[in-house]
Amino acid sequence: MNTEFEELYQQIILDHSKRPRNFGPLEDPAAVHVEGDNPSCGDEIQLHVKFGAAGEIEDIKFTGVGCAISQASASLMTLKLKGKPRSEAEGMLKAFSDLITKEEEEAPRMLGDLRLLRGVRRFPQRVKCAMLAWRAFEQALMGSPGAETISTE
Ligand code: ZN
User: Fold this and answer.
1) Residue 139 Cα, ligand 1 centroid: separation in angstroms?
2) Rounded to an integer, what distance in angstroms lies between the CA atom of residue 29 and that of residue 23?
3) What distance lies between CA 95 and its chain's CA centroid?
4) Could you report the per-residue pLDDT of 91-106, keeping only the tens digit for each?
5) Phi and psi dihedrals of 18, rounded to 5?
6) Ligand 1 centroid, distance to 55 Cα (angstroms)
7) Nearest CA among 76, 69, 67, 16 for reference residue 42
């Protein structure tokens, strides 16, 4: 990891953890709600997703508390997934999971700033933090509308 990359990484993580985007409840009867936690770090997330008529990610928001990496990953994820067709969102989920768990040098361009999180793959505990929001999203893809709550554990 070069210094420039590290500085950018710090900046983006700090920015998103301090001012998370799409943070807040989603008061919509059609929304799917997923609750997830990562006890080893103390991260908690409530992910709220509204799927459109064609299955696209019409709206996505989150609430919760946690370390900078879990918050930043959730914030960046919502920015990336909002408005995306379901198939593209699923591709993003797979690409991000591969990025932080596999030894691949090339980070897919479609992940944008999320590529900055690839450094966490050297730290298994941090991988759980970065994956928390994404695991919740994976559950949301399988969930049904209403007040249903699914645990990621
Ligand atoms: Zn954490």
Assistant:
1) 19
2) 18
3) 12
4) 999 999 999 998 876 7
5) -80, -40
6) 30
7) 67
Q: What is the pLDDT of residues 25-65, one digit of tens each?
A: 999 988 999 999 999 999 999 999 999 999 999 999 999 99
Instruction: Quote the pTM value.
Output: 0.91
Question: If you measure from the C-alpha of residue 141 to the centroid of ligand 1, how many angstroms do you get, rounded to a whole number?
Answer: 23
Tokens of 115: 């590529």
**Chain-centroid distance, C-alpha 106:** 20
User: Residue holding tokens 């997703």?
Assistant: 49
Contact 131, 36 (CB under 8 A): no
Q: What order do you get walking across the sheet with 32-38 strand by strand? A: 32-38, 43-51, 57-65
The domain made up of 3-151 is a member of CATH 3.90.1200.10 = no
